[in-house]
Every structure is written in C-alpha cells, then in structure tokens.
Amino acid sequence: MQKRTKALAWLCTKAIFLALFVMPSCGHAASDTNSPPPIPKPGPLAQPRSLQQVGLPLDQTRATIPPDNPQTPEKIALGQKLFFDGRLSADGTVACATCHDPARAFTDGRPVSIGIHGRPGQRNSPTVLNALYNKTQFWDGRVKTFEEQAELPIINPVEMGQTNMDAAVASIQAIKEYRDDFEKVFGRPPNGPDIQRAIASYERTLFSFNSPFDRFIAGDANAIDDSAKRGWKLFNTQARCNKCHALSDNQPNLINFTDNDFHNIGIGIIRHHVVPLARQAEKLVNSGNSAAIDRAAILTDFSVLGRFLVTKKQPDIASFKTQNLRNLLLTAPYFHDGSQETLWDTMDHYNKGDGVQNPFLDQDIQPLALSEDDINDLVAFLASLTSDDYKEPAAKELARQRAIAKTNRPQRDTARAFGPKPVQPPPGP
Ligand code: HEC
Ligand code: HEC
C-alpha cells in the first residue's frame, strides 16, 4: 500500500511536470471534447462606468492610472473591443469576457473557469469590477499590474491557448480594423504590449459603487435595513471580518473591503496534502518563469498552494488574496476554488473557524459563536454591497441562495462554532 502511494505520488509529479513544461495541453482534468460557452455580447453593463457614483473615491481612482499608460477614450474603446473578441484566442472561441461576463459582474458563475476546447482550470474567476484598486492581481497576487496580467490568460493553455504573444499579435494584425485602430491610438501596428495597454485601460474604467451601503455611509440612515446594520457591526466585532477585510482593525477599506494581503483561511486544504506538494512545487517553480507559475496555478494541483507559488515561503502555503466583497450576489460560487455555493455556506465556514489539521491556518480564523440571526445579519450586510446596476439579478440570487440555505447547509457545524479554538498541528519538517 505504502509503495503504491509512493508510485502514485511519483506519477502525479511527473504528470504535473509534463503539464508545466512539456505538454501544456495535458493539464489536470483537461478535456478537448467540450466547447467553451459562447462569448457574451458587450451590452450596457460592459460600457465604461461613470465616475459619478456614491462611494467612488475620485483621488484613489485617478491614482490607479500609470503615467506610461494614460487613459484616452479611443484606447479604452479599443481595449473594450479586444476584451470581447474571441480572435485573441488560439481558435477564435474564447475572449476575456467568456470568463468575465459583465452580466455576472465580470465573473462566469462557475466553480472553476472553462477555456479553450472546454478545458477547465483550477480556479474561480474573480470579478474585474474594481480590480483597478487591487495592489496585486490574481488569487495569489502573482502579478501587480493589469498590463502584466493581460498577457497570461492569452498564453495559458486552458484559457485562450495561444502558444505565445506573437501568435496573438498575428491574429490581431490580420484584421484591418485593428490595424487602423492601433495606428490611431498608438501610432504603430498591433503588438503585444499595446494590446495589453489597451485592455488595461478598459479595465481601469470598470468601477462599481452606488450600493445601498455606500448611501448609508454617505449619511442616508435608511439606505440599509436594521439587519444589515447589525451585520456591519458584527463584521467589525464578534465576526472578526475586519481582521482581514479592512485596512486595519480600526480602519475600514470601503473600496473593496480587503487588506490587500494573503491568508490561509482553510479553503481546499483538506483535499490536498499541501506540505509534500509544496516541496515538489519548489523545485519546479524555481526553474520557471511567470508563464510557468501561471500554468502551475491554473492547470495543476499546485494551484492549492496559493501565495507559496510566488514567495516560496512556508507560511504562505495555501494562502490566498483577501477577496473584494462587493457585488457578491453576482459572483457566486465563492472562494478561489468556487467550493461554496451560498453566502450562508461561507458564513458557516468562518463560524466554525475551519482548518482542521491545517498548520498554516491564519490565527484570525477561529470559532465565532455566531447565531443563525447573526449569520442572517451578516448576509444582509454583504447583500447591501450590491451596486444599483445589479439590483434585480442580485435580489433573485439572494432569494435562490436563501431557499437553498433553508434545507442545505453542508458547512454548518454548530458544535465547533460554539466550541474552543482547536490546536493546529505543527508544520512538520
Ligand atoms: C478561461 C477563463 C478566463 C479567461 C479567458 C480570462 N480570464 Fe481572467 N481570470 C480567470 C481566472 C480563473 C482568474 C483567477 C486566476 C488565478 O488567480 O490564478 C482570473 C483573473 C483575472 C484578473 C485578476 C483579478 C483579481 O481580482 O485578482 C484579471 C484582472 C483578469 N483575470 C482579466 C482578464 C483579461 C484581461 C482577460 C483576457 C485577456 C482574461 N482575464 C481572460 C479566468 C479567465
Ligand atoms: C484571516 C483573514 C480573513 C478573515 C478573518 C475573514 N476573511 Fe473573508 N476572505 C479572506 C480570504 C483570504 C479570502 C479568499 C480565500 C480563498 O478563496 O481561498 C476570503 C474570501 C471571502 C469571501 C468569498 C469572496 C468570493 O468572491 O469568493 C467572502 C464572502 C468573505 N471572505 C467574507 C468574510 C466575512 C463575512 C468574514 C467575517 C465573518 C470574513 N470574510 C473573515 C480572508 C479573511
């Protein structure tokens, strides 16, 4: 039995190695039999958003524009066109918008994304709304800027599948309309960095505020109900959410409710033996570049290692970026692996202080002793972070989740939620 496990582990390493460096298309659970979902059309929700929104921080918004990539209306329009254009992918079938659909607050509604030839990745698609305020991009923060970020899905074998940026440039260059656009915007023919600049410019127009909570903070005491008010209070006290979803315990971050940091909160950890995995990853990732790390994160079991893939520091094992909490009713399912279906499930996860047998669990994750009423209040607060543009679909989704949560609470563990803080095992050698 022991031998068999070892042999399996070796095979697994070998498969991961092949997936990373030799045959990118043989990724984890890759399948060429399906087609990706159709590319969404750029409707009203895809348009650059107004700066006139309650809660929008003007100075911080302007500060996100890098001096070497100033915003112009023509560049933004070009970026928007590229964002929705499947011709940027290897076979014309996948665009950025495939996985970042404006109707779903620029996510795809799936646990993990599906790219070219219907190939699944390992991670949940995060919203691009308000991503301009992120200090780093991706769940593990492996890149800092939109410009750097935009290249990686284009050349990832389970996303847009181009062999390299030159191949993507060739398909864009073949189209006269784009040759004209690039000439007009950049004064030169299409090339990789300019494609990335244009897409980044468009993404820097996707801000989303104007929620009932923003109006409440702006002084309208009736903008949210009592339940949401109690939820906001719990968020900053007993529920301990402000330990991570704020700039500091006493300083909220009303932009995206994040500390811009990384934490192991016990997601996905049970399915994997992360320490041996980390040892294997270190060898592979040390020899790689950003494209290799990108493949490790999206294609392989190494995905679960999170921030460790970037820093190679043991305490970062299975740490992920504190996620933006706006428009959550449009961005289900939740967490980096899309493992939780409803907001009630995410609250149950936190309430029991999950992380059984998890040496790297963040010290701020611990049993919370929240009652059912408390949980409902926290959900009401989170729901109040929905922008007006998404009011109707959000109300429908809240009703759907509430109905599910009435009978199905797979993460609920009241004994643990009201029990003592468990002792975690040491990390081991
Ligand atoms: C096949 C689905 C898919 C496609 C196509 C895709 N993405 Fe993504 N995107 C994802 C997933 C999954 C992640 C999270 C990956 C990770 O963190 O490792 C992500 C992350 C991002 C992020 C980081 C957001 C954050 O909060 O960290 C941005 C920005 C982004 N994508 C923009 C784009 C752009 C621009 C394109 C087109 C050039 C694109 N994506 C194409 C699935 C996709
Ligand atoms: C120790 C830090 C920490 C604390 C405390 C914390 N969070 Fe989080 N939160 C995170 C991180 C990190 C993620 C992303 C984790 C992942 O996907 O692996 C996250 C993700 C989430 C998500 C999922 C978002 C999405 O789009 O997938 C929700 C909802 C959430 N947190 C709400 C809360 C609430 C409400 C509380 C308080 C009860 C709370 N969090 C407490 C760090 C924390």
Biggest sheet strand order reads 1-2
Amino- and carboxy-terminal Cα gap: 23 Å
CA gyration radius, whole angstroms: 22 Å
Strand count, sense and barrel status of the largest sheet are: 2 strands, antiparallel
| Count of all domains | 2
Number of DSSP helical runs: 17
Helix-strand topology string: HHHHHHHHHHEHHHEHHHH
Poorly predicted sequence stretches spanning 5 or more consecutive residues: 1-31
Class per helix and strand makeup: mainly alpha
The CATH homologous superfamily of the largest domain corresponds to: Cytochrome c-like domain
A few lines on this structure:
The protein is mostly helical and 429 residues long. Helix content is 39%, strand content 1%.
Explain what the structure shows:
This protein is an all-alpha fold and 429 residues long. It has two domains: 44-203, Cytochrome c-like domain (Cytochrome Bc1 Complex, Chain D, domain 2); 212-266 and 321-417, Cytochrome Bc1 Complex, Chain D, domain 2 (Orthogonal Bundle). The chain is 39% helix and 1% strand. The chain is built from 17 helices and two strands. It has a two-stranded antiparallel sheet with strand order 1-2. Helix 3 (73-83) crosses helix 8 (192-203). It is globular and about 65 Å long. The relative contact order is 0.13. Bound molecules: heme C (2 copies). One heme C is lined by residues 94, 96, 98-100, 113, 115, 121, 123, 125-126, 128, 131, 134, 137-139, 146, 149-150, 153-154, 159-160, 199, 297-298. Residues 35-45 have a biased composition (Pro residues). One of its GO terms (cellular component) is cell envelope.
